[in-house]
Each structure stands twice: as C-alpha cells, then as structure tokens.
Design goal:
Helix content: 10-25%
Number of domains: 3
CATH topology of the largest domain: CD59
Structural class: alpha+beta
CATH class of the largest domain: Mainly Beta
Bound molecules: 2-acetamido-2-deoxy-beta-D-glucopyranose
Order of helices and strands: HEEEEEHEEEEHEEEEEEEEEHHEH
Largest sheet: 10 strands, antiparallel
Amino acid sequence: MRPYVYLGIILFCLHTANSLRCAKCVSKKGNCNETEVEVCSSYQDACFFEVKDFIGVSGTTVKRGCTTANYCRRYPGGYKGHLDRTMYCCSSDLCEPVDYHHSHTGAENGMVCQSCIGNEAECGQNAWSEPCHGNADRCIQISQRFLPGEELEPIIKGCGDSSFRDTLVAYQIGKDFAYIEQNVCGLRNCNNRSFPDISPGQPNGLKCYTCRETGKGECDRERLQLLNCTGIMDRCVHIISKDRDVPTTIQKGCATETMCTSYSDIYYKLMRQDSYPACCKKSFCNRAGDHSGPEMLLAVAGVVLWLALMAGK
Ligand SMILES: *[C@@H]1O[C@H](CO)[C@@H](O)[C@H](O)[C@H]1NC(C)=O
Ligand SMILES: *[C@@H]1O[C@H](CO)[C@@H](O)[C@H](O)[C@H]1NC(C)=O
Ligand SMILES: *[C@@H]1O[C@H](CO)[C@@H](O)[C@H](O)[C@H]1NC(C)=O
C-alpha cells in the first residue's frame, strides 16, 4: 500500500504546485489584499480583472478571480445602455492584467452612499460605502429583474445627481415578469436595501398580445398569444428593433406607462439601445407588428388617395 500513498502525496504536491493562483475580491479600486487569493481549479487557466461602470452613478466595481482563457475571449464586454463592462485577463501566478487607476471628478461633497454594481451577494445590504463627489449628492439604487437570457447586473448603487427620479418600470412578456426599479434618496447610505420583491399583482382587465421573437417567427401575427395584464401594468407594449433595414417586433406584452413615458430615461439607460418600446391603452391594441408595417402603409396610401381626391374637387 505504502508506495501508492507516497505517489498520491507526490501527485497532490505536483498538482497544487502547478495550480494557478489569482487575487480574488470585489472592490472599488481593484486592489485585493494579500490574503484574498484563490487557488484555481485544474481547468481554470487565467486570472480575470473585470471592471463595471454605469454612466452617471459612481458605483465602479472591480471583481477579480480565476477563470478560463476561453471565457476571457468570449466575454460580452462593452456598453449595454449606460452599463459598461470590460474584462482583462492574464495567465501567470498572481498576475496583474492591467495597471488600473480609478479617478473621481470634483471634490468630496459630504454625502456618502453605498457604491457597487453586481448581484445581491456582492451589492446587497452590506455593500461598501464611498464618499460622493461634485454635484452627485444623492444616493441611487437601481434594481432589475431581467427576462430570462437578458441577465446583466441586477443591482447598481452609488452617488448620482438631481437628474435621477424614483421610477418603476414593470413588464410582462409571456409568462415572464421583469422590472427596473430606480430609487433616489438624500441621507447617508440610504441606498442600503437588498433586492426588492415586486409582484406582478392581480388581473386588471386589460388584455394584450404577447410574444418573444427568437428568430423563429414567434411574433408573426397568426402566432401571437393573449396575455391578461396584472397590477399596475395598464398598457400594451410592443418593443421594436431600431435596425433600419428590418424594423421588426422583438417582444409584445403588458407594461406600465413608465416603460414608454420614461423612454429617454430609464429604458435607454438600462435596456438595449438597438430597440424602443411603443405603448397603447386599449385591449389588443399591440397587434400591429411595427410602425412601418402593412397597416401603416395602407393608412398612408389612404391619406394620399384622400388628398388626391380632395385636390381633384
Ligand atoms: C484582507 O481581506 C480580508 C477579507 O476581506 C479581511 O478579512 C482582512 O482583514 C484583510 N486584511 C488586511 C490586511 O487588510
Ligand atoms: C439604511 O439607511 C437608513 C437611512 O439612512 C437607516 O435608517 C437604516 O437603519 C439603514 N438600514 C440598514 C439595514 O443599515
Ligand atoms: C384571461 O382571463 C380570462 C377571463 O377574463 C380567462 O378566461 C382566460 O383563461 C385568461 N387567460 C389566461 C391565459 O390566463
């Protein structure tokens, strides 16, 4: 038995000696301390350094740890609305993939807010606090529940200026309920909540068409499903791609009025910039595919014909 035990110990030592180690922490500036180190698993061959920013909210967050070089290559970085994410990677022991410095604009203004971007564990009630700078003298908390497959960063906290407003945008696409809640407050660390639990509520009488296009024609007219709207979702919505060549419906469902009235604000900041929502009030009013669809063309043709007739009189 003995030789096997020794062999086992030797293999174990070789294995740990070969294991990559990476700094591991979630912080503001990206400096993990010496004790915050992760021994990577055998399949992890890279250390990551992820920087998350949200325009207008001082919640800059750096997350570090072990990953795979393959994930680094496939990382979906860049802007999604006002959220910007970048990942740097390197593959040697305790390596530093980037020389990162975080800077502020303006002097400290006396306000202090919880600041972070991430999930409930990273950015919940016990998130770290930071002094605010310049004219950003409010504490902001933005919480989002996403449609399946659209998940990004559920919580964004930080200092922001007076342009932020309390807003709740809720929408239901098929059986999926999603929302964006933005809260603004003016006391030190008042953005200290965890994730809010907002429920869709009871049927409110409005009925809308619903679909979610995945490229298989789910939003074709004849395939639309019906949805009973609930709670404060008192508008039918359709979300249209901005792609000029093919303006197509991406989603239909029920929504709060804020989904459309705050379009330039919350939807633009938090959702894709390649689409926009259009709302209407009456049951089944969101049947038409998009504004340049056949119905609209027919209407335009009608007006032209009418004008021609009037001119002829
Ligand atoms: C390093 O970080 C750990 C975990 O966050 C913390 O418990 C510890 O006090 C820190 N050590 C130093 C020297 O800052
Ligand atoms: C959150 O902040 C408010 C206002 O500053 C304070 O009254 C409350 O005690 C805080 N809650 C927690 C859990 O820290
Ligand atoms: C919607 O509500 C109607 C009653 O108004 C009900 O008959 C129908 O089954 C509901 N549809 C769904 C999909 O729940």
